Amino acid sequence: MASPKRGRDGSGGGGAGTTSASPTMPDDLMIEILSRVPVKALMRFRCVSKYWNSFVFDPNLVKLHLQRSPRDNPILYTLSEYGEYEDDAHYLHQSSTQCLLQNPNSVVGNDGDGILVFVDYDIVGVCNGLVCLSRIHANLDEIWVRFWNPATRLSSDESPSCYIECGCANMAFGHDASTDTYKVVAAVMSDAECHKLELIVHDLGDDCWREIPTTDADFPSEFLQTKGVFLNGTLNWVTVLGTGNSKSLVDFCFDLASETYTCFKLPNNAEEGFSELGAFGGCLCLSHIYHRESFAFWQMKEFGVHQSWTLLMNISYHYFEFPRYLIPRPLCLSEDGNILILVCHAEYQLVCCNRRHSQIEHFEIPHKWISLKSTDYVQSLVLPYRTT
């Protein structure tokens, strides 16, 4: 078994002892036992010996540990507050779905477990415990990405830069299970005058970006969603297909395995207003705001099937305690679809919408510098770089 490379941030392998003898217990049994141990404890085991330093990142252990990781920690958020943290410092926290549903204010508790996020980077997406970060040049003409595992504190080097126009890059991050490859896909503007978009992809560990062939007839003229959504091996954005009177809003769906794309129709009455896709309960969901009058939340029960779009909630702005020009974002959905928690960052509010009891409650977020983002985060041993 090859020993993994040292982490790009200098932390990989640090502190390992000189003992190289392996334990007498069979590797299969060791993997079975260690797959149930939290990541934080496994990181301490690396300091025992060179053997342990290598064994913790054994591919079989990494895979089994990921399969057994608890899935009830989907809320990631960055937190900073003047007087508490240094300027420009942002800390990554996590919260349990169940805790949030029971007590919406629990998401902003100071648990002391915050992880410092790289300065000047934006979170593109999260998948299997890996966080994809992006950085745009000050001139808005270049973009880089890097990969980071907050649980292990390991990170990759920056990718090669990608040329963009006007800082325009609609990105998403996901996992191709067929090849066990993590990919970043971006729709970038290649020609601002002609409003020409192109699709490019970067694989974790590669030294280049690749262009995906597209045709004007079936490729969107505009991406309305900055960050795409990963679900079922695909990346999804709300986009505009067609021009002039033939324009329509569609879900642009990119398959990571085949590297091909298709477009799905959104609900019939979601053509006008603001629309944004998300993933909740293993289903693709759509938030739609109609002329700042109502907030509708749809769920696609069967992925890719237009007829399966189901309206879960439709709430008049009259019931919200914030102005109509503000847009609430969904943060958490209960398994039965009866409770939806929204966040309105501008007003520092969480909104708990209970469909069963026809009840809406507002909760104030005590921290004034907080960015809440819902994602299926799990602590894992997945490496943010290639070892071979």
From TrEMBL:
<dbReference type="InterPro" id="IPR006527">
    <property type="entry name" value="F-box-assoc_dom_typ1"/>
</dbReference>
<dbReference type="Pfam" id="PF00646">
    <property type="entry name" value="F-box"/>
</dbReference>
<dbReference type="InterPro" id="IPR017451">
    <property type="entry name" value="F-box-assoc_interact_dom"/>
</dbReference>
<dbReference type="InterPro" id="IPR001810">
    <property type="entry name" value="F-box_dom"/>
</dbReference>
<dbReference type="InterPro" id="IPR050796">
    <property type="entry name" value="SCF_F-box_component"/>
</dbReference>
<feature type="region of interest" description="Disordered">
    <location>
        <begin position="1"/>
        <end position="24"/>
    </location>
</feature>
<protein>
    <recommendedName>
        <fullName>F-box domain-containing protein</fullName>
    </recommendedName>
</protein>
<dbReference type="Pfam" id="PF07734">
    <property type="entry name" value="FBA_1"/>
</dbReference>
<feature type="domain" description="F-box">
    <location>
        <begin position="25"/>
        <end position="65"/>
    </location>
</feature>
<dbReference type="InterPro" id="IPR036047">
    <property type="entry name" value="F-box-like_dom_sf"/>
</dbReference>
